[in-house]
Design brief:
Layout: H1 3-13, H2 32-46, E1 50-57, E2 60-68, E3 83-84, H3 88-102, H4 146-150, H5 182-195, H6 200-209, E4 232-233, E5 239-240, E6 255-256, H7 258-270, H8 276-282, E7 287-288, E8 311-313, E9 318-322, E10 325-334, E11 337-344, E12 349-355, H9 364-372, H10 379-383
Antiparallel strand pairs: 1-2, 1-12, 3-6, 4-5, 7-8, 8-9, 9-10, 10-11, 11-12
């Protein structure tokens, strides 16, 4: 079956089921006193030095809290402290792309070749993007669409430089399976900037950061961030200075704060700024996820009977079905950062967690459950064999 038809068919078949159980009633959102106490327990249990949480209820930010330290000097982490957004950048970028879909500038199902003035491998390699020239001789790149790139199904490794020989290549038929790829997101940025002459950094600033009152968010480093900046802690407790990312990279260069990004999360779960159709498309299940965990990228697919039928790729996020109905989420990670955004359509509720200590990730499932109740987030798929704190 044509990959584009398969994506559409899966989205239609997964959009609802008459025999699905009725969603469970959502528990009340805990007050800030209870949230503060639970965050303190989580930090003590994991050894995390810094953590920030935002709670969204009915599409409104009802709490933003920050705990611990922002750096080795012990300066307090605040709700306006600049933290690394990591791969949550991808979801913000996907939201921007869907605005361009609404405006008719780009079509999710059209091959990217439509937007380029020469074949992709003919473009000179640039450090800002990736080495498209390595795709010469493999015409499968012509089947790649924006929808395929936003569902992480182009067939790329996470980044080409991680390949044994450092050369970007296509490992499977584009659109046929999920395999997380930052270079896929970078390719879509390249298509938009080179093919359509759109400046992703400028457009995000105007359409998202300015619109939703996010004064301390940018995809490019700003010197004023240094006044109130979070460094990070790695798994062994070492301090890692905040990286000053000077290049706009849609795959993950965003700096932000819990105050700022919570406003975007609230707007996203409301569907504000997108047509109802584009919001539904962004948060719909487009491609089944067939592996035991998200990483390593090219692990074997599970046999059909062992796969989860409640887990799929959306556009720039992951879609799941759980006891409270359908939701979506996105994680972000590097050696000293752990982030997650979990949203439920029912009640338009979200939890956003930014941690400047990667050890805090072990407490994310418990903290999300503490705020939202049981959701069905695929934590085992997200974190693989990583030991998680169960709250005891």
């Amino acid at each position: 079956m044509n990959p584009l038809r398969a994506l559409t068919l899966f989205a239609l078949l997964s959009s609802g089921c008459a025999t699905a159980p009725a969603p469970r009633a959502a528990p009340p959102v805990p007050d800030t006193v209870a949230l503060d106490a639970e965050a303190a327990r989580a930090m003590a249990a994991t050894g995390a030095k810094g953590l920030a949480i935002a709670v969204i209820d009915d599409g409104r930010v009802v709490a933003t809290r920050a705990y611990g330290a922002r750096d080795a000097k012990g300066e307090p982490l605040r709700t306006d402290t600049v933290m690394y957004g990591a791969s949550l950048t991808k979801t913000v970028f996907a939201y921007l792309v869907m605005q361009w879909v609404d405006e008719g500038r780009i079509d999710m199902a059209s091959p990217i070749a439509r937007y380029l003035d020469k074949p992709l491998p003919a473009y000179a390699d640039e450090d800002r993007y990736s080495t498209w020239s390595n795709l010469a001789g493999d015409d499968r790149w012509k089947a790649i669409t924006p929808g395929i790139l936003l569902t992480h199904s182009a067939g790329f490794a996470n980044f080409g430089f991680l390949e044994p020989d450092g050369r970007l290549r296509i490992h499977f038929a584009p659109g046929s399976r999920y395999a997380y790829s930052g270079d896929g997101i970078m390719l879509l940025q390249f298509v938009l900037e080179r093919g359509l002459k759109l400046d992703v950094g400028t457009e995000l600033q105007q359409r998202v950061f300015d619109r939703f009152g996010m004064p301390n968010t940018s995809l490019r480093w700003r010197p004023d961030f240094a006044r109130n900046l979070a460094d990070g802690w790695t798994a062994d407790g070492s301090v890692e200075p905040h990286d000053e990312r000077s290049t706009v990279r849609a795959a993950g260069s965003m700096d932000t704060t819990i105050d700022d990004l919570s406003r975007f999360a609230a707007a996203l779960v409301r569907g504000e700024g997108l047509s109802p159709r584009s919001f539904a498309e962004m948060t719909a299940p487009h491609l089944p996820i067939t592996t035991r965990s998200q990483f390593p990228t090219f692990q074997d697919e599970l046999p059909p009977e062992a796969r989860r039928n409640d887990l799929a790729a959306g556009l720039g996020l992951v879609v799941f079905d759980g006891p409270q109905g359908r939701g979506f989420y996105k994680g972000g990670h590097n050696d000293s950062t752990g982030n997650t955004l979990v949203c439920l359509h029912r009640g338009r509720r979200c939890v956003l967690i930014l941690a400047n200590d990667v050890r805090a990730e072990a407490a994310f499932p418990h903290l999300v459950r503490f705020v939202l109740g049981e959701t069905g987030v695929p934590w085992a798929w997200e974190y693989g064999d990583k030991a998680l704190w169960d709250g005891h």
